[in-house]
Amino acid sequence: MSGGDVFHRDFKPAPYWWEAFTPTPGPIVDVPRTSRVVIVGAGYAGISTAIELANAGIEATVLEAREPGWGASTRSGGAVSGGVNVGKSFSGRTFQGTPEQITGVLNSAADAFSLIETIIEREKIDCFWEKRGRFVGAWTPAHYAKQAARVETLNAGAKSGSYMVPRERQREEMASDYYYGGMVVERSAKLHPALYYKGLLEAARRRGVTICSQAPVERITRQGSGWVVQTGRGTVEAGDVVIATNGYTGDATPKLKRRIIPVASHIIATEELPPDLAQSLIPKGRTLSDTRRVLCYYRMSPDNKRVIFGGRARFTAVTPETAAPILHGFMTDRFPQLKGTKVTHAWNGNVAFTFDALPHTGREDGMHYALGCNGSGVAMMTYLGYQTARRIVGGANQPCGFELPEFPDHPLYFGNPWFLPVVGGYYRFRDWYDRRAA
């Protein structure tokens, strides 16, 4: 099938989610001259930080370079991890820490899942929240064995409700024999990411949080015990600064930029499918992903009429028109019955990976940060923002597993991921070789 054959006549190079909520500048608010806390980035983490600070009576100003929600927060697949992906890098390797660190990380992942449920209920956010679980397909029999070895740890630490599904029972989870069985994670969910973001944004505005759109941060400097934050629309003095820029971390914070590897993830949405076909693909309504190094993740749309299919068509950003045929091919590898189905939307966004495959919250040269979703951004960035606010307030009830003593960088990396095309080619080869050997 040629690339042009996959596009619907009404194709849009924009997120499908934006049909329900499109990020806009909103009221253009002047950058204030002073603020108790300045938050850089108006994604899940930044808005979550602001909400929790407001709940504690602390004034906060959120600075956003574009429109609130323009970045990854309204571009993801909408999967909400119950901890299965925490500590897994884009290469497929898993975090190797001390038993105490692993327990802390998994406990915090479980808390992140609980927090997002609490926020959705408390703020009455209508975002198609569904706890249908996740099925992670094993790319090879060896991957299946590794999954099986993790089940006990995931259940003990993240309360994930995980269990294995052998290949002969795989069609209970998906209408395909593509994988070698896989793992079900019951404590996993999905939502409409743009509507969830819209709900968070409205919750922040109800609390009087100042949100300045189109105010890119150009420079941050110390001034006594506080900070001066210079933007494209004015300068603000702050007592505390929070960096919540994730996969869009820039030159204003060079030390943090060296710790974040932005990896492009691409997604397509299909046209509406015949009802019987749509119902048959993922019979239990789960989110699906796999154990490939160049992984794919997919689900049905909230109305159960379309497939939302994401993956690393490339490790760097390419146009939606380039990515869509590649993802369409991945999709029809798994579901041959979708050949001929057209693509109505295609888009991309940056996932923020770290060198130790873990999210991080803490302080760098006195600035607070909430960074490094590693592909689990919906719950994780909400949680990291909440924890960052609790640290500023001084009311954290328990240590956060992602507030680790080290946030590693690399001596040869300065924030420009020039190596990703080479890494991507190597991982694609390894995936091909492992599958062929299997």
TrEMBL record:
InterPro entries: FAD-dep_OxRdtase, FAD/NAD-bd_sf. Residues 36-390 form the FAD dependent oxidoreductase domain. GO terms for cellular component: cytoplasm. One of its GO terms (molecular function) is oxidoreductase activity. Keywords: Oxidoreductase. The keyword Oxidoreductase applies. The keyword Oxidoreductase applies. PANTHER family: FAD DEPENDENT OXIDOREDUCTASE DOMAIN-CONTAINING PROTEIN, SARCOSINE DEHYDROGENASE-RELATED. This is Glycine/D-amino acid oxidase-like deaminating enzyme. The lineage of its organism: Bacteria, Pseudomonadati, Pseudomonadota, Alphaproteobacteria, Rhodospirillales.
